[in-house]
């Protein structure tokens, strides 16, 4: 006699339902790994109750090469959460772009270093991409943020293709 034949119909039903659930989970996991990654790091949130205020930096020129960064602003989302928002328009195709943020207080002390605040794959020349990178800073109140954009995994700050500092 086999093990399966010895089981009651309720046990058999439970085993079949469990196997089906595992099968569905496996199919969803494989489909998720095969899907293209069009996501952007960072989630844009607006806190209506706190009256979040955007601080535009009209003097954010920075060092530019093959990208144009526009409408760069820092928004205090409340409770230590800050976002950097704007638009990037590449003048050439990039297989990868990433943003590195360094937050400083009024005395120049580094409060938070986010080496991968935002990224995107396959940025096309002439196609404007909106971005929003959110950081939680619990070590003080930032007065400025250094924004650096890289076209590969950042080894050091000197390889940035765009760099500017925005006052908060």
How does the SSE layout of this entry go?
Blueprint: H1 3-6, H2 9-34, E1 53-56, E2 67-78, E3 81-90, E4 94-104, E5 110-123, E6 129-136, E7 144-150, E8 162-167
Antiparallel strand pairs: 1-2, 2-3, 3-6, 4-5, 4-7, 7-8
Q: Could you describe the 3D structure shown?
A:
It is a single chain. With about 170 residues, the protein is an alpha+beta fold. The model is unreliable at about 35-65 (pLDDT under 50). The protein has 2 helices and 8 strands, in the order H-H-E-E-E-E-E-E-E-E. It has a 4-stranded antiparallel β-sheet with strand order 1-2-3-6, with no helix packed on it. It starts with a helix and ends with a strand. Helices cover about 20% and strands about 45% of the residues. Strand 2 and strand 3 form a beta hairpin. The protein has helices spanning about 5, 10-35, and strands at about 55, 65-80, 80-90, 95-105, 110-125, 130-135, 145-150, 160-165.
- What ranges have pLDDT less than 50 throughout 5 or more consecutive residues? 37-63
**Major β-sheet profile:** 4 strands, antiparallel
Give the count of helical stretches: 2
Secondary-structure element series? HHEEEEEEEE
Category from helices, strands and their pairing: alpha+beta
Q: Report the span from N to C terminus.
A: 75 Å
Give me the side-by-side strand order of the main sheet: 1-2-3-6
- Give helix % range: 10-25%
- Could you tell me the radius of gyration in angstroms? 23 Å
How many distinct beta strands? Answer: 8
User: What is the averaged pLDDT score?
Assistant: 81
Strand content: 35-45%
What shape does the CA trace take? Answer: elongated
